[in-house]
Amino acid sequence: MEAMLGQSRRGVNPRSGQVTVQTQPPLAEQETNPTSAPNHLVFLEKAECVRSFSAELEDDRRGILITGLATDKEHMFVVDRENNRIFTHEGQFKFDIKVNKPFDVAVSQTGHLYITSPDDRCVQVYSTRGQQVTTMGQGLLGFPQVNSVNDNIVISDMFGHCVHVLSPTGDHLYQYDGSREGSELRYPHGVCTDSYGHIFIADWDNTRIVALSPQGQFIRYIVTKDDGLKFPWAVVINPAGQLVVAEVRGNVKTFKYTELKQGE
After folding, report:
1. The pLDDT of residue 5
2. 216-263, pLDDT tens digit by residue?
3. Nearest C-alpha neighbor of 191 from the set 10, 17, 9, 16
4. Domain of 175: which CATH number?
5. Do 211 and 44 meet the contact criterion of CB atoms below 8 Å apart?
6. C-alpha span between 69 and 18 (Å, rounded)
7. In whole angstroms, what is the distance from residue 91 CA to residue 39 CA?
8. Which residues are CB-neighbours of 218 under 8 A, at least 6 positions away?
9. Which stretches does the entry tag as region Disordered (predicted)?
10. Which of 5-14, 86-95, 102-111, 148-157 has the lowest mean pLDDT?
11. Contacts (Cβ under 8 Å, ≥6 apart) of 89
12. Greatest CA separation found in the chain?
């Protein structure tokens, strides 16, 4: 949280965007068996949807608008402006954490949920079992990210139609807006990175997920409206290394986007 606020002071204002942390080297530099013909991970030409469920429940008379998404080994945590709901990875509803108009959620390695509420202007901390731990940042509206000083910070600027990547000390490394590909981002919101440092952007108004290398080079559109995607808002990588996408109207979809290939 402090790292994100520090970046804003250095001239990058994410406005209504999202912040995440970039870690580790790209897929191309990873080998799973260096003593023989190396195996390596590559992006699939077409991502495969392996699971899908709706976060909308029977008593949601007005429908829902998903604004936040997080995951751990057991659960998915879905924020929809009125609820913070906990599901299994298969989509079974478990329980709800009542927070005043929640907006976003992140889960830490220590097993704590960080839930933001713009109305309360604070971050509320819960266990992943639903017990409240503490409240922090009263009077400050921030993003519930657990930042590492050793990793780059990725910030989506929704109304600036771009994504910024900064160093841990706040230096601006690069900006991506899609103009080099001739198809600019339009209201990007959710951002996440996988364990190899690749960046994934929920390009909301273009209805697609953009994949970048850790250096900001365009790789491909992982999922698009041709795959049945509808207005993606939040993205996260689950413990299985799959891409989870939350559509704003309530659907949560899980995609396999890489495969292991045998080297020669």
Report:
1. 28
2. 999 999 999 999 999 999 999 999 999 999 999 999 999 999 988 876
3. 17
4. 2.120.10.30
5. no
6. 11
7. 32
8. 176, 178, 180, 181, 210, 211, 212
9. 1-35
10. 5-14
11. 51, 71, 74, 75, 76, 238, 254
12. 58
Cβ pair 26, 212 in contact under 8 A: no
At residue 185, what is the residue type? L
DSSP string, the chain: -HHHHHHHHTT---TT--EEEE-S--GGG--S-TTSSPEEEEEEEEEEEEEEEE---TT-TT-----EEEE-SSEEEEE-SS-EEEEETT--EEEEE--SS--EEEE-TTSEEEEEETTTTEEEEEETTS-EEEEE-TT---------TTSEEEEEETTTTEEEEE-TT--EEEEE-SGGGT----SEEEEEE-TT--EEEEETTTTEEEEE-TTS-EEEEEEEGGGT---EEEEEE-TTS-EEEEETTSEEEEEEEEEEEE--
Residue 262 burial by Cβ neighbours in a 10 Å radius (0-12, 13-18, 19+)? exposed
Domain span at residue 97? 2-262
d(CA 179, CA 160): 13
Number of domains making up the chain = 1
Which amino acid does the sequence have at 53?
A: F
